[in-house]
Amino acid sequence: MEFHIRCEAKDIARYAFVPGDHERAKKIVDHFDNARLVSDSRGYLVYTGTVDGIPMTVSSTGMGGPQAAICIEELGHMGANTFIRVGSCGTLQDRVPCGGVIIPTGVYRAGATGNLYLPPAFPAAPHFQVLAALAEAAPKLGIKVHVGIGWSGDAFYALPDPQLIAKLKEAGVLSLEMESDTLFIVASFRGWRAGSILANDGTSTEIKPAWGEELFRRGEEQAIRIAIEAMKSIARADAQASK
Amino acid sequence: MEFHIRCEAKDIARYVFVPGDHDRARKIAAHLDSPKLVSDSRGYLVFTGAIDGIRMTVSSTGMGGPCAAICFEELGHLGADTFIRVGSCGTYQDNVTCGDVLISTGTYRGAGTANNYLPVAFPAVPNFQVTMVLVKAAQKLGAEVHVGLGSSGDAFYGPKDLALQAVLKEAGLIFREMESDTLFILAAVRGWRAAALFACDGTATEVKPAWGEAVFRQGEETAIRIAIEAMKSIALTDSRDESSRA
User: Which residue of A109, B37, B85, B121 has the fewest CB atoms within a 10 Å radius of its CB?
Assistant: First the structure.
């Protein structure tokens, strides 16, 4: 029995979705067959079920690096080794609208949890197989996505440094969120595969505007569908490789 | 006329190969139709020619971030916006050996030049499109490649931090070289597309062993062929995108 996610190896699948939001965990599990709640402790809402017969787990991570790291570590202890974060984000780019879906190819390490694993010079990058599966699932579902660099940080309400923000915008940073850096670094450190897909709930000038809520929800559902399609294709490739 | 590369926009193509080694620049140029030497200054050996009618340039960057950054910047001034580094590398991993070909999906920023552009927290990652095309080109050519993270550093002969090396090996870094971090960070700052692949000339325990030379040269040739195949496919996609917009 793990310290915080109160369940056991038999309850956890190799393939895990790790949204921040508990409500999004429920939305992902709506796509599962035979889903059951396996833990609800410390804010980790964990379900396991199947998609096309493939066992899959979803666990909310909560917000920020520290509890996201505990979540991924304990899921890993129980046998998970392939993670897709399905998150929400803001954006620095004028061309990304509310509801836009973003797949990060690497994230700026403004969060501190990852530093306890690997120095800041280590690139917070997704596993290429997961990244490629996400990027290829999107057009298959007819969904347009933005693929590029993102930013992860620890303080949603801290005052941003305007000079740095301008520099990062210029350097093409697409997404702003709080957990992908930790996910990518912990996964590299442990030898797991991880990727992220994010639905944008803001604009380059507005944080979570009310008018964007409905568009964001549509993007969130698209991100979930892409993540599930990608996970299926990874599982199929794994099955092929183990033959 | 650029300060160091000493040529002009008409001499440089949009699609550029950027090996570190001058001799490798010549080997890449040998694959171009009617390659023309457009500059040989400060160690930047620059050829422009065509492949299947697509204009391409190759320029040696020299070794290390400072001279590589000047090379990328000046090529960019002259109109280049798509870069593939075809390099050599060593390795951290026991399952990689002399002659293997590796494709970067991200690079540890152990070097200093890029810090003048963006803080070390900024990820040195390649453009996804170019990287995907490299992976597919390797498949098409039947070449086995390793795809993953590696490191760049500034001091080939510097003292090694053994504890850090062990951590980086454990974290799965596959390659070690000296220029891809600078390339990826500059590409982010300038809005270019860039990716990198390498032929390995060592093992996890040996630096450039003599016994590995011949297999390394085979790997180098394979890396060049993958890079050229990939660049052709990118140019083809670009021209399709442009004609669908027109």
Answer: B37
Distance from CA of A96 to the nearest CA of B (A): 16
Nearest CA in chain B to A151: B122
* Residue B108, domain CATH: 3.40.50.1580
Nearest-neighbour CA in chain B from A190: distance (Å): 7
Q: Is residue B244 part of a domain?
A: no
pLDDT digits (tens, 9 = 90+) for A223-237: 999 999 999 999 999
Chains A and B form CB pairs within 8 A to the count of 78
Domain count, chain A: 1
**Mean pLDDT taken over chain A:** 97
Domain region containing A81: 9-242
Q: Which domain holds residue B205?
A: 9-238
Q: Which of B125, B139, B173, B175 to mutate: most A Cβ within 10 Å?
A: B125
Residue pLDDT, tens place only, A29-58: 999 999 999 999 998 999 999 999 999 999
CB contact under 8 A, B164 and A118: no
Q: Which of A105, A121, A168 sits opposite B110 (nearest CB)?
A: A121
- Over 90: is that where the pLDDT of A159 sits? no
pLDDT of residue A31: 98
Chain B closest-CA separation from residue A23 CA (Å)? 30
pLDDT one-digit tens code per residue, B136-158: 999 999 999 999 999 999 999 98
Domain at A176, CATH number? 3.40.50.1580
Using H for helix, E for strand and C for coil, what is the string for chain A?
CCCCCCCCHHHCCCEEECCCCHHHHHHHHCCCEEEEEEEEECCEEEEEEEECCEEEEEECCCCCHHHHHHHHHHHHHCCCCEEEEEEEEEECCCCCCCCCEEEEEEEEECCCHHHHCCCCCCCECCCHHHHHHHHHHHHHCCCCEEEEEEEECCCCCCCCCHHHHHHHHHCCCCEEECCHHHHHHHHHHHCCEEEEEEEECCCCCCCCCHHHHHHHHHHHHHHHHHHHHHHHHHHHHHHHHHC
pLDDT, one tens digit per residue, over B22-49 is 999 999 999 999 999 999 999 899 999 9
Is there a domain that residue A115 lies in?
yes
Q: Is position B187 within any domain?
A: yes
